[in-house]
From TrEMBL:
SMART domains from the UniProt entry: Trans_reg_C
Official protein name in the record: Putative ATPase
Molecular function, one GO term: DNA binding
Species, as recorded: Bradyrhizobium daqingense
UniProtKB keywords: DNA-binding
Length: 967
């Protein structure tokens, strides 16, 4: 371990030494300066006493700042020639924390990453990157205490400093709690040397009278209070002086602060001004720097403790969570919850600090749920903070109280939105007596005052309230009499938005997909005690395509069930009832709830479609009913249903509908082992325009690869392995780019067998992992279990027998409990794995059960392979039954020939030929295998055909040897 460190860092080798490396290393962080050459660390010039090993540990962590260093690597560095346990390392880490004051007064340098190691999280600079205080010059600055550790703001400080140098007058703008004052003070310290200490800080936050702004500012410079014109006195004092003036917290005295800043900027040409405000001063010479939230991980990010620390919001959260002595530690298990918290807090530093202070009491996961249930605006922060920064409520109220009455009314009403919203949506909900131009002016003012965020894309401007501000506004709105009216307007607006989205646009839902949070919120109100059930039913029906587009099937099921319960309370249309029953039945089917309720809902919807003469709707519903019957193992019923659908499609004259029913017929025949008929139906479906096109803009069960993958499966069985795999690869590649998780998962499951049959799962494992992740994320329970079975099979093919067999066996048992119709197919690899593990008896029980189940339901597609695997199990029993094994192999061969399944026929023929070879029946073996092998026209590079070819060669040599011996 030590040698690896030496090689990695270039130390302690023949050509260099620790001293030579250290001579180039001096690090500055906070008040500390670490000189690696002299092995000395000082705090504000005073040496800090550390043991040699503690110094080595600290130096190693600093050299790898921002990354996690494992415990074993640290121990190898500090004890290169000794073997020690982790307790020794923990003792020295504790000593380091004590010596550095880690966790006190907000200082944070060392972070523990549970189960991995330690990470240095302080901001480090080299001596030549800092500007030392010039000796001999008096420092007249009155800056507040230097912020010890500015998380995620280093680049911001540099950018503001550059703009001040070039443009003289910069206003840092942003919402309350985002860190404007901290940034301004940090800039002041960064520029101390440039201004020879002449940096002056004036806090206007405690001044409630705008008239006094010039006087307060003048008094801070020591000018006499009796001056009749403090502004003129200030200008005279500052004229010709090279100085940085920081005017902090200008928003509540904005007019007076703007006038003073403009006058000083014009009359003192050497003066640089840095202001902070929640809105721009809007005066001559001003340049804006909008302070952005700290970066948080995206919603779907896969986080570990180490990768999470790359996001400044999480780094700040961890620092604040541990600074007060909390036992909290960032781990791989809680990293996603912490990232979710920071994202929910909009990356606002104050909100993160206040929330992080309570994570030790609740835990990260509970904190997420707490935010969902009630966004706490009263959690207190530092006692020494300004009153407006001690709670989130105080921060928001500070800004809220500066708004006009009209601005407050609009902000309160906008709090009904969740997430972003358009100007049209805002005007529809606000809808006061004011005209649209007046509302737009108020919204623009709220944006300018950092109470409302805006973003512009090529098509549309979006607005958004920060979550804390939205919760505050909701509390204000709830106290008023028109809260329910705003909620009704909100629900009605999104109902109109969804109903006006035509079929062509629904492929992408450009205006609705990013509005799902608002749709969900509107539905929650509609079905609440104070809600409007009529709007709720209509909104649920209109949102069904959106639920399917976003693969939110569990939520679709929930709201469809709520709407159906409310149908008796309203005079609903048959079409809406049809849509709701169809959605509930389909959602339950796709989430793996193969029960009577799903079947009843689909049949009820089909009856409604027949009643109103909706032929297209009947085709869609028959497609869903067909899928449910396949999944529950009712293969003969599924074939009848598909034939019924074909008749309706012919009546409708819709080529897309007919293609869909031919696809359903092809899949039914495929399961029943009727390969020729199956291929004919699939090719007919693929040859006709619109084979997978949505009908009427409604959600469909088709996906682009459904027909091609089915064709690939058939081609493999018929003896065309190269073409089969080529088609499957193309379909999988297309599926992986599909923006539809549910359909992606179904495509990946359907394609799996082609790669499994062809014995090349190595190229498919990434797809299995993707399937597992997507099915878990979207709560597709049955597909998740199937994915786990596939993962188990993949592990078995790689020789990882124990975990693979356990995963596959457990998955098969779960699928049997869920009444999954095709579970018999997964029993084939399970029985084969049991045979390979010398568990012949268990293998025989498994395959017998699968054969019986397949026979009862007509699942004949894999019956030839089941019989082959049964023969293997009989041979591998404690007492082999060779006669019965040969009979099963003969049955397998005959059935494969009847079905036209040349792929299975080759497998069985190879096994039976190998058995006859062992019996010395070389001619019989060759005469059995050679004709089967000879019918192949491709796939000679696949494992099955190579095995058969090698066996034929062996058989011919064996026959030759016997002939030679007889002579």
């Amino acid at each position: 371990m030590a040698s690896r460190w030496q090689s990695k860092n270039g130390t302690a080798t023949a050509g260099s030494s620790v001293q030579e490396e250290a001579a180039r290393e001096t690090f500055v962080f906070g008040p500390f300066r670490l000189d690696a050459e002299q092995r000395r660390i000082a705090r504000n010039g005073e040496q800090v006493q550390l043991s040699a090993r503690a110094f080595d540990i600290l130096l190693t962590l600093i050299r790898h700042a921002g990354t996690v260093v494992s415990k074993s690597d640290l121990m190898a560095r500090a004890w290169p020639h000794s073997s020690v346990d982790e307790n020794s390392l923990r003792v020295h880490i504790a000593a380091l924390r004590k010596a550095l004051g880690d966790g006190h007064a907000g200082d944070r340098y060392l972070s523990t990453v549970s189960g991995q190691g330690y990470c240095f999280v302080g901001s480090i600079s080299k001596p030549d990157e800092t500007q030392p205080e010039p000796s001999g010059l008096p420092y007249a600055h009155n800056l507040p205490a230097h912020p010890r550790h500015m998380v995620g703001r280093e680049q911001t400080i540099r950018e503001i400093s550059e703009r001040l140098r070039a443009q003289r007058f910069v206003t840092v703008v942003g919402p309350g709690g985002i860190g404007k004052t901290t940034a301004a003070v940090s800039v002041g310290y960064a520029l101390l040397a440039e201004f020879a200490g002449q940096v002056h800080f004036v806090s206007l936050g405690e001044n409630c009278d705008a008239v006094l702004v010039p006087a307060v500012t003048a008094a801070s410079f020591g000018l006499p209070a009796r001056s009749n014109d403090p502004s003129a006195g200030l200008a005279s004092l500052l004229r010709g002086r090279h100085m940085l003036l920081i005017l902090d917290c200008c928003e509540h005295v904005i007019d007076a602060a703007a006038a003073l800043a403009e006058q000083l900027f014009q009359e003192a040409p050497e003066l640089h001004i840095l202001a902070t405000s929640r809105e721009l001063l809007r005066v001559e010479g001003e340049h804006a720097h909008r302070l952005l939230p700290l970066a948080s991980p995206p919603e779907k990010a896969s986080l570990t403790a180490a990768s999470a620390l790359a996001y400044p919001a999480i780094e700040l959260f961890v620092e604040r969570a541990t600074s007060g002595g909390s036992e909290f530690a960032l781990t791989d298990a809680n990293a996603w919850d912490v990232g979710n918290l920071c994202r929910r807090l909009d990356g606002i530093p104050l909100a993160i600090e206040l929330t992080a202070g309570h994570v030790g009491a609740y835990g990260a996961g509970a904190m997420v749920r707490l935010l969902d249930e009630h966004f706490n605006l009263l959690w207190e922060g530092r006692r020494t903070a300004l009153p407006r920064h001690r709670t989130l409520r105080a921060t928001i109220e500070w800004s809220y109280n500066l708004l006009s009455e009209a601005e407050r009314e609009v902000l309160d009403r906008l709090s009904v939105f969740v997430g972003s919203f358009s100007l049209d949506a805002a005007q529809a909900i606000v809808a006061t007596a004011k005209d649209d131009d007046a509302i737009l002016a108020i919204i623009d003012s709220l944006v300018a005052k950092s109470m409302l965020a805006s973003s512009v894309d090529p098509q549309l401007t979006r607005y958004r309230l920060l979550d804390a501000t939205r919760v505050y506004g909701q509390e204000r709105l709830a106290a008023q009499n028109d809260a329910d009216e705003m909620a009704r307007r909100h629900a009605a607006y999104f109902l109109a938005l969804l109903e006006n989205t035509d079929g062509a646009a629904r492929d992408g839902f450009p205006a609705a997909t990013d509005q799902f949070g608002n749709v969900r919120s509107a539905l929650a109100w509609c079905f609440s005690d104070r809600g409007d059930r009529g709007i709720g039913i209509a909104l649920t029906a209109a949102a069904i395509p959106l639920f399917f587009k976003l693969s939110l099937l569990t939520e679709c099921e929930h709201w469809a069930a709520r709407a159906i319960e409310a149908l008796d309370e309203t005079a609903e249309s048959a079409r809406r009832s049809l849509a709701l029953y169809a959605a509930l039945g389909t959602a339950r089917t796709l989430t793996g709830q193969f029960d009577d309720l799903a079947m009843t809902c689909l049949n009820r919807a089909l009856a409604l479609a027949e009643k109103i003469g909706d032929l297209s709707g009947q085709v869609r519903l028959i497609d869903r009913l067909h899928l449910l019957q396949l999944l529950t193992g009712k293969f003969h019923d599924a074939l009848k249903t598909a034939r019924r659908g074909e008749s309706i499609a012919l009546e409708s004259g819709d080529p897309g509908a007919l293609s869909r029913m031919h696809l359903a017929l092809g899949i039914s025949c495929h399961y029943l082992g009727e390969l020729a008929a199956s291929r004919a139906y699939i090719e007919a479906a693929m040859s006709r325009f619109g084979a997978t096109k949505d009908v009427g803009g409604e959600p469909t069960l088709d996906y682009p690869g459904r027909a091609p993958i089915t064709l690939g499966r058939i081609l493999w069985l018929q003896g065309y392995p190269d073409r089969a795999v080529e088609i499957a690869r193309k379909a999988v590649s297309d599926a992986l780019t599909m923006d539809h998780p549910t359909m992606l998962c179904r495509a990946l499951v359907w394609a799996f067998d082609v790669f499994y049959w062809n014995e090349e799962l190595e190229s498919y494992e990434d797809s299995i992992d993707r399937l597992l992740a997507e099915s878990r994320t979207h709560k597709l329970a049955t597909l998740e279990i199937v994915a786990e079975a596939m993962k188990g099979i993949a592990l078995l093919t790689r020789g990882t027998t124990g975990p693979g067999l356990a995963m596959l066996k457990g998955s098969v048992e779960k699928l049997q409990n869920r009444r999954f119709g095709a579970v018999a197919g997964l029993s084939v690899p399970l029985a084969a794995a049991l045979v390979a593990a010398n568990q012949g008896g268990a293998a025989l029980d498994t395959i017998n059960q699968a054969i019986a189940q397949a026979g009862r339901c007509g699942f004949l597609m894999e019956m030839p392979d089941m019989l082959r695997v049964k023969a293997e199990a009989l041979i591998r029993k404690a007492t082999p039954d060779m006669l019965q094994a040969e009979q099963n192999l003969a049955q397998s061969l005959e059935l494969a020939r009847q079905q036209g399944a040349l792929g299975y026929e080759l497998r069985t023929a190879t096994m039976l030929a190998r058995l006859r070879q062992r019996q010395g029946r070389y001619r019989d073996a060759e005469e059995l295998l050679a004709p089967v092998y000879g019918r192949f026209t491709e796939g000679f590079g696949t494992r099955s055909l190579k095995t058969a070819s090698d066996l034929l060669t062996e058989l011919r040599f064996s026959r030759s040897d016997r002939l030679a011996g007889s002579w």
